[in-house]
């Protein structure tokens, strides 16, 4: 795959920059999306878009499907991508791809310090505006809606007893003191499948076979 992508230095201020799974998926999408409009099986896939699947992304990044789903959801919630899923494929759109991948100053290099200072000032204002807009968009989604999304993810595991699922949900959906985040949102590596299995093991009654075993941690 020839060519290159542009990554601005202000990416280090991005809210998911220090999240290995989320940032890795985002950079992977930046590298994989179309750089020009193309057709795929009669479907127009525009610049900044990619047709894929959670399974395919999991294979490419050597992650679990649940990790991919969680990372995609976080990128959607923060307004960095849009995801449209069908029974055939998943269409991912990187928001503002053109804005990030257009070198506007390529043929217009500054010639003096005044021009440089003006450009830096404009860049700083643009960066601040983007960050504020992103934060507003993230906060716009009410915590109740995020709680409902998480509840749906938990209760998809219908193989477990309802009381188990309800207790698991109540624990991990507990809000912080500022009422802005749930307990599970503080963990970049939260995997509902794995955590539920551990939770169920912890809820099993003690028997003569498992009395000597230590309790599974990291509920």
Short description:
This protein has helices at 20-32, 54-61, 65-77, 97-100, 113-140, 143-155, 162-172, 192-203, and strands at residues 38-40, 43-45, 49-52, 81-85, 90-94. With 219 residues, the chain is mostly helical.
Observed structural traits:
single chain, 219 residues, mainly alpha, Arc Repressor Mutant, subunit A, three-stranded antiparallel sheet, two-stranded antiparallel ribbon, 8 helices, 5 strands, disordered C terminus
Q: Rg, please?
A: 22 Å
Unreliable stretches? 105-113, 211-218
CATH architecture classification of the domain at 9-100: Orthogonal Bundle
CATH topology description of the domain at 9-100: Arc Repressor Mutant, subunit A
SS-derived structural category: mainly alpha
Total number of helical segments? 8
Strand order across the largest sheet: 3-5-4
Tell me the helix content: 40-55%
Overall 3D geometry? globular
Q: How far is the first residue's CA from the last residue's CA?
A: 42 Å
Quantity of strands, as a count: 5
Major β-sheet profile: 3 strands, antiparallel
Secondary-structure map with pairings?
Elements: H1 20-32, E1 38-40, E2 43-45, E3 49-52, H2 54-61, H3 65-77, E4 81-85, E5 90-94, H4 97-100, H5 113-140, H6 143-155, H7 162-172, H8 192-203
Structure description:
This protein has 219 residues and is mostly helical. Among the domains are: 9-100, Arc Repressor Mutant, subunit A; 143-203. It is 47% helix and 9% strand. It is built from 8 helices and 5 strands. The protein has helices at 20-32, 54-61, 65-77, 97-100, 113-140, 143-155, 162-172, 192-203, and strands at 38-40, 43-45, 49-52, 81-85, 90-94. The strands form 2 sheets. Strands 3-5-4 form a 3-stranded antiparallel beta sheet. Strand 4 and strand 5 form a beta hairpin. It is globular, with a radius of gyration of 22 Å. Mean pLDDT is 79; it is low at 105-113 and 211-218.
């Amino acid at each position: 795959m020839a060519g290159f992508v542009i990554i601005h230095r202000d990416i280090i201020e991005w809210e998911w920059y220090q999240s290995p799974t989320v940032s890795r998926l985002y950079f992977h999408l930046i590298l994989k999306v179309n750089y020009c409009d193309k057709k795929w099986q009669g479907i127009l896939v525009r610049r900044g878009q990619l047709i894929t699947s959670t399974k395919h992304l999991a294979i490419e990044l050597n992650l679990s499907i649940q990790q991919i789903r969680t990372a995609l959801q976080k990128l959607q919630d923060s307004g960095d991508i849009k995801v449209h899923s069908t029974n055939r494929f998943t269409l991912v759109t990187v928001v503002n791809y053109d804005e990030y991948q257009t070198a506007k100053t390529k043929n217009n290099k500054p010639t003096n310090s005044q021009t440089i200072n003006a450009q830096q000032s404009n860049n700083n204002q643009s960066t601040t505006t983007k960050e504020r807009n992103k934060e507003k968009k993230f906060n716009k989604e009410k915590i109740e809606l995020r709680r409902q999304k998480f509840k749906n993810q938990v209760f998809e595991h219908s193989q477990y007893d309802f009381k188990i699922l309800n207790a698991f949900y109540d624990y991990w959906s507990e809000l912080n003191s500022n009422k802005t985040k749930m307990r599970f949102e503080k963990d970049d590596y939260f995997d509902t499948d794995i955590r539920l299995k551990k939770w169920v093991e912890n809820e099993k009654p003690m028997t003569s076979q498992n009395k000597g075993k230590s309790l599974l941690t990291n509920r």
